[in-house]
Design brief:
The chain is mainly beta. It contains no helices and seven strands. The chain has one domain. Strands 1-2-3-4-5-6-7 form a seven-stranded antiparallel beta sheet, with no helix packed on it. The termini are far apart.
C-alpha cells in the first residue's frame, strides 16, 4: 500500500511542490514470482519538483528530484542503499492536446546496500540515466450541450 502527501504552489508560469511517498507491505509477496503487487518491504521517498509551463507559448519543463530509503526486505535479506533520483521532461505543445519533447531520468545510489545473504550484491555506486523522445496526446474534453 502506498501513501503520499504533497504540497504545491503556483505563481504564474512557475509551479513548485514537495512530496513524501511511503510504502507499507500489503498482500502477498513471493520472491520467486516474476511480478508482485507490492515491494515486500517498507520504503520512503521524499523530494521536490519544479515545473515551468507557459500556456501562451506552449513551453513546458519539469524536474522532480528525491531520495529513497528502505528497510530490510525480510524475504530476500536485502536492503537497498539510499538512492537519489531526478526525473525530467521538456516539451512543446503543438496543439491544445498534443506535445512533443524529451523525457529522462538520472539515478544514483549514494550509500551501500546491506545484503548478508548475497555477498555478490553491489555495495554502492549503482547509477543509471536515460533520455527518450516524447510524443503525448490527451483526449479533448468532452463537450456538453443542452438538448
Amino acid at each position: 500500500m502506498y501513501y503520499q502527501g504533497t504540497l504545491k504552489w503556483n505563481q504564474g508560469v512557475n509551479n513548485e511542490m514537495v512530496y513524501f511517498l511511503g510504502n507499507i507491505p500489503s498482500g502477498t509477496y513471493d520472491p520467486s514470482r516474476l511480478a508482485n503487487l507490492n515491494l515486500g518491504f517498507v520504503a520512503w521517498d521524499a523530494g521536490a519538483g519544479y515545473t515551468y509551463f507557459d500556456q501562451k507559448t506552449g513551453h513546458e519543463f519539469s524536474a522532480v528530484g528525491g531520495f529513497t530509503y528502505s528497510l530490510m526486505n525480510p524475504f530476500l535479506q536485502y536492503q537497498n542503499g539510499i538512492d537519489f533520483h531526478v526525473d525530467w521532461a521538456a516539451s512543446q505543445f503543438v496543439s491544445k492536446n498534443v506535445q512533443i519533447g524529451l523525457v529522462g531520468y538520472v539515478y544514483q545510489r549514494v550509500t551501500g546496500t546491506a545484503a548478508p545473504a548475497r555477498s555478490s550484491a553491489p555495495s554502492w555506486g549503482a547509477r543509471s540515466a536515460s533520455a527518450r523522445r516524447l510524443v503525448s496526446s490527451s483526449p479533448s474534453p468532452r463537450s456538453t450541450r443542452a438538448i
